[in-house]
TrEMBL record:
UniProt organism field: Rubroshorea leprosula
Name the UniProt record assigns to this protein: non-specific serine/threonine protein kinase
GO molecular function per UniProt: ATP binding; protein serine/threonine kinase activity
Gene Ontology terms: cellular component: plasma membrane
Family, per entry: Belongs to the protein kinase superfamily.
Xref: SUPFAM superfamilies: Protein kinase-like (PK-like) (SSF56112)
Binding site for ATP: K123
Biased composition (Polar residues): 10-20, 41-53
UniProt biased composition (Low complexity): 21-40
EC number(s) on file: 2.7.11.1
GO biological process: defense response
The keyword Phosphoprotein is assigned to this record: yes
Domain spans labelled Protein kinase: 84-367
Length: 420
């Protein structure tokens, strides 16, 4: 990664709200952490990465003066989006709205609709819950982080009460839209694996440097797709700097999305990279089953995807019962079984038993390769057998019914409201 990162914005834990989105995904935000440590913690990096480190931002001014970002005026973005006209609206959530806009590819000045470069402009509601802090965190991280599987932040606007962010446009919207909304063509097995690999690459990038970043809000609505179904992670409003020195975790206010948040994080407020791994396991289950992490339209155990699916994941003879019917049976049985075993490992109730994202990525890359459509390669077979030995099937606890998480509205399709 080569960057020293730390979010300068502390989270105010004096408020707590809980809203449920139309999709049933709840944003989580706890009033206090049960751990003895403060519920909000900012950890500046004292360690240096092997590669050149950017200075740790210590003030809002430093963060906003990032050389990688353009500071737009409100009028420029007003012109770029045709005065935020309703027919430019791409999505809407608890934090605000996302509009389609056009800017000159060289100068970044507002361009005529249909000319220049298409962008997605996120406009925060002034009354949004902790909106400015999350907005600032997003500018901080995406202003410094650059990777093919992270959405590109082009610039921002901070003018009076107006806070906007300008991103690259992702024409196919979010993974959530393609998996759960009526209309889009069902995703094939190959595309689902392509998305899983790309998302795993993005998380691995965040986790594997000394300047570790914990994403904290990995979910289907935060995975955006370009025209070729290349996936990129978006919405870094909840990202946190990982533990440094001899620390094993970061103690922080519990925030995330109900159904995706790791149970130990929900219970204690102790955040680690393994919290992201759990969330990845939930999304992997969504890719396999075509079901939402939480679906309030269903009853009993079927409301929570992890609770419903776990009895079938460890038995390849029963796995077909949870596979998405929209796949029409067009998937490799061995590949699906490998993905299911990987999901079991990611969803372990013991964080230490969950694999690192780099290991998850390695298994998924083997699954994505065409040669594995009919049979496993020896290395993959070994890794699957090791997975079974290391992680006997344990029923993961479903996250407590706590406040939900931040979700950047993917350009191009209506998003469910962002909730907490």
């Amino acid at each position: 990664m080569g960057n020293c990162l730390a979010s300068s914005a502390r989270v105010d834990t004096s408020q707590s709200t809980h809203v449920t989105s139309a999709s049933g995904a709840s944003r989580i935000s706890s009033k206090t952490s049960r751990s003895s440590a403060p519920s909000s913690l900012t950890i500046p990096y004292s360690e240096k990465s092997n590669s050149e480190c950017l200075p740790t931002p210590r003030s809002e001014g430093e963060i906003l003066s990032s050389p990688n970002l353009k500071a737009f005026s409100f009028n420029e973005l007003k012109n770029a989006t045709r005065n935020f006209r309703p027919d430019s609206l791409l999505g809407e959530g608890g934090f605000g709205y996302v509009f389609k806009g056009w800017i000159d590819g060289q100068t970044f000045a507002a361009a005529r609709p249909g000319s220049g470069m298409v962008v997605a402009v996120k406009k925060l509601k002034p009354e949004g819950f902790q909106g400015h802090k999350e907005w600032l965190t997003e500018v901080n991280y995406l202003g410094q982080l650059h990777h093919p599987n992270l959405v590109k932040l082009i610039g921002y606007c901070l003018e009076g009460e107006n806070r906007l962010l300008v991103y690259e446009f992702m024409p196919k919207g979010s993974l959530e839209n393609h998996l759960f909304r009526k209309g889009p063509q069902p995703l094939s097995w190959a595309i689902r694996m392509k998305v899983a690999v790309a998302a795993a690459r993005g998380l691995s990038f965040l986790h594997d440097e000394k300047s570790q970043v914990i994403y904290r809000d990995f979910k289907a609505s935060n995975i955006l797709l370009d025209g070729e179904f290349n996936a990129k992670l978006s919405d870094f409003g909840l990202a946190k700097a990982g533990p440094t020195g001899d620390r094993t975790h970061v103690s922080t206010q519990v925030m995330g999305t109900h159904g995706y948040a790791a149970p130990e994080y929900v219970a204690t407020g102790r955040l680690t990279a393994k919290s992201d791994v759990y969330s990845f396991g939930v999304v992997l289950l969504e890719l396999l089953s075509g079901r939402r992490a939480v679906d309030k339209t269903k009853s009993g155990v079927e409301q929570n995807l992890v609770d419903w699916a776990k009895p079938y994941l460890g038995d390849k003879r029963k796995l077909f019962r949870i596979m998405d019917t929209k796949l029409g049976g067009q998937y490799p049985q061995k590949g699906a079984n490998t993905a299911a075993i990987l999901a079991v490992r990611c969803l372990s109730t013991e964080p230490k038993l969950r694999p690192r994202m780099s290991d998850v990525l390695g298994i998924l890359e083997q699954l994505e390769a065409p040669k594995n459509a009919s049979r496993h390669s020896p290395t993959e077979k070994e890794s699957v057998q090791q997975s079974v030995r290391k992680s006997p099937m344990r029923p993961p606890r479903s996250p407590l019914n706590i406040p939900p998480s931040a979700s950047p509205l993917p350009p191009s399709h209506r998003q469910s409201p962002r909730v907490r």
